[in-house]
Amino acid sequence: MVVCGLACWRCRWLLPLLLGLAIIMGIIALAGRGWLESESAPYVQQASLWESCTRGEEDLNWSCESLMDYGWGRAAAATYLVGFVILVICFALAVIAFSIEILRFNFVRGIGGLLFVVAAFQIIGLVIYPVKFTEDIPLTGDNMFSWAYGFGWASTVVVIGCAFFFCCLPNWEDEVLGNIKPMGYYSSPERAPYLN
């Protein structure tokens, strides 16, 4: 017998787990110094969400300037940070929602709506940063948007996916709560004579 149904009561912790993963990736993006880096040696430029650092080819010390001196730097940091804070709130709400025996599905759909707001804030920050950075900061050599910036986008993609699942979850309310019996598929000799 094959049991169908991906949405099950035992799997209810998968969505909060994915939100936790998005939070971890968001922390890496917020703290990482790899938003922009030199593509090849000599490594003379690196930047985070908060500051841009350069050094000479022979110099070992980095000279850094704060991106918070620019209006776009404050806007990029603020929008990404606001999205991150709302993401943490959504994670806490999801843990509470899935801990309750009688799951409130309108509440779950509200979390999905909030996650779309999170995605909007994060996308705004992730788009402002590279556009304005390349316009206002003089770049030295070949540079690339690197791993920490990628973690920011990865967090956003996970948030968008979770938002769709949270919004669609009430459509499978009976399956998630275990109110219906899972469908089983049997093959019998009468129905499949070609198997004999």
From TrEMBL:
Keywords: Apoptosis, Cell adhesion, Cell junction, Cell membrane, Cytoplasm, Membrane, Transmembrane, Transmembrane helix. The keyword Disulfide bond does not apply. InterPro entries: P53_induced (IPR015664), PMP22/EMP/MP20/Claudin (IPR004031). It is found in: Cell junction, Desmosome; Cell membrane; Cytoplasm. The keyword Cytoplasm applies. One of its GO terms (cellular component) is plasma membrane. Belongs to the TMEM47 family. This is p53 apoptosis effector related to PMP-22.
